[in-house]
């Protein structure tokens, strides 16, 4: 295994030059299988255990929640461990990535196809699932944090950093689309096989990608680099925006099928179309947002995405029974808006770590807490939206107007309130502290 050395002061600048697609492919491809496996782990697995093995929903839900909490709590520790691997060598990071990939592939296979000896005993089945999920989620987190840290350590300008993240997240969206289609069309056997092949290809491409240069420690903010990430005021401010905005984005993801089935009363055959349009438009929007970054800067481009999301969901609140085509447009435009959530916060974090003197030193520590927050966003969204819906009188399958209006408020308007709050925080805590943006330049391909 080998990586390409670079004589550039910032290897990331290669992503803005001729032939940048090769660098993007080599680094970003691993994002595809890592996103691919997330859907079977978080969405397919619960339904598979309930239907195929008659696992009780309450007990299964408790096991899933415990495994996810275990995974989230480990992320900061995994981040610090990845920093130590980078301090040793890039080869050590790639070796850890290879080991975690093997464990991840075997773990997914073991979860979807538990041994016959445990299938007939619910307790044994749940113990098997809990232990294997803890191992598999840990392997997933190691691979994810190491891969993200690698990209963060490349450094570079705002445009370069946004391109690096966009390549990774673009491939991730392709992975989500594949994972949404394969289990229902080719079955779980083919899904696991495809995942293992894609994971091997992604890791191999990663070994050929540009290697980060070794960072030189410096403390431009009076020793700030010695502080824990959670004690860095600037990281606290950016993390607050990320959490509020992430919760706003996670609520519609939690409630979308309820809205489609009850508010729109759409057929189940249309549900894949809604999801496909959303993810496809999110992927296609990434090059657009990368161009906009060169014009507005990272933070202001993210703010523009938040504004677009609010406008789209205000319109969605006016939809009702049978509004299939308008909701497809909502899915398309909200997918475009979410492109900023995918590419820009991570690029902002990379820049912040460089300004704090952490580049090449402690990216893993920051990304560990960042991933912890991202996983908590999903839990917070479900913990906020579902109880509010129940408290206000909505139950799945409801058809009375009061209940449907409650669903609309939760799906459309609650995220708007949180997005506006996130936008206000972004402006007050981040944009106001930035230097004035340069004069707008013509957009270039």
Secondary structure blueprint with pairings:
Layout: H1 20-28, H2 31-52, H3 57-88, H4 90-112, H5 116-119, H6 122-152, H7 158-207, H8 233-263, H9 271-296, H10 298-316, H11 324-355, H12 363-391, H13 401-430
Helical segment tally?
Answer: 13
Low-confidence stretches: 4-8, 216-225
Helix content range: over 70%
Mean residue pLDDT: 83
Radius of gyration: 22 Å
Number of strands: 0
Measured between the Cα atoms of the first and last residue, the distance is 33 Å
Shape category: globular
What string, H for helix and E for strand, traces the elements in order? HHHHHHHHHHHHH
Classification by helices and strands: mainly alpha
Report the β-strand fraction as a percent range.
under 5%
The biggest beta sheet, please? none
Question: In words, what does this structure look like?
Answer:
Mean pLDDT is 83; it is low at 4-8 and 216-225. Helix 2 crosses helix 7 (158-207) and helix 8 (233-263) packs antiparallel against helix 11. 47% of the residues are buried. The chain has helices at residues 20-28, 31-52, 57-88, 90-112, 116-119, 122-152, 158-207, 233-263, 271-296, 298-316, 324-355, 363-391, 401-430. It is 76% helix and 0% strand.
